[in-house]
Specification:
This protein has 144 residues and is mainly β. 9% of the residues lie in helices and 33% in strands.
Length: 144
Amino acid sequence: MLMRTDPFRELDRLTQQLLNTNGTWSRPSAMPMDAYREGEEYVIAFDLPGVDSDAIDIDVERNMLTVKAERRPATKADDVQMELSERPLGVFSRQVVLADSLDTEHIKADYDAGVLTLRIPIAERAKPRKIAIGGGSARKEISG
């Protein structure tokens, strides 16, 4: 048997059960994320522990990135008696507005150890570049 030592965690769990705050397709729960720039790409990492990669859906429409995932209850044998259940189940979703400077045509997605990582390259048109000065005759202003 497990010993419960954090009364506030237990209160949060009971509140979640009473209010039925598990995410549904019509009211998904938020998922934590980090976003940062690494070299010539933006990286967005979503925490989705316990979610099967087949239960993750990634969509991009114009500049709106949507990530949805569903964590289903694990199937248990008939003789298993649940003692404690704190891991949230249900549907999780997050929408991120992407800047025009990102190349949404070449997004790469990896899922490892419960973390979904999206790598979005910076578009060529948004990268800094040097402008060459063309040679030519000098201009003279005529005042008059």
